[in-house]
Design brief:
Number of strands: 0
Structural class: mainly alpha
Strand content: under 5%
Order of helices and strands: HHHH
Length: about 110
């Protein structure tokens, strides 16, 4: 079990390193990185302190702590998907507005020619 916890901690640290490198290179914005960092820290915390996961499982009514962790992960993924959907919706409106403005400018340019 100790080897498994070390493996999870190593994976968490590697993931944090990847996220931080993506932020430094400009591939990932800080606002989105915070969500990924929070998810990694929660996973790392459960790996360091497995009793917390057992208490969470008991609180949620699960007999197997892994199911509580799975529920937390699914919840986090749903929150991330919702945030991405909001961002896509906002960008779609901006794209539509830009297309309309471009068409108007193109029509105006054609009139002047």
């Amino acid at each position: 079990m100790m080897l498994f916890r070390c493996f999870i901690l190593a994976g968490t640290l590697a993931f944090l390193f990847i996220v931080l490198r993506a932020v430094r290179s400009g591939k990932l914005k800080e606002a989105y990185a915070l969500l990924w960092i929070a998810a990694a820290l929660v996973t790392g915390t459960f790996a360091l302190f497995p009793r917390l996961l057992e208490r969470l499982a008991a609180f949620l009514g699960f007999q197997i702590p892994a199911f509580a962790l799975l529920l937390c992960m699914v919840g986090a993924i749903l929150l991330l998907l919702f945030q991405i959907t909001l961002i896509i919706s906002a960008h779609q409106e901006k794209i539509t507005r830009l297309m309309e403005e471009t068409a108007l400018l193109r029509a105006e340019l054609e009139k002047k020619k």
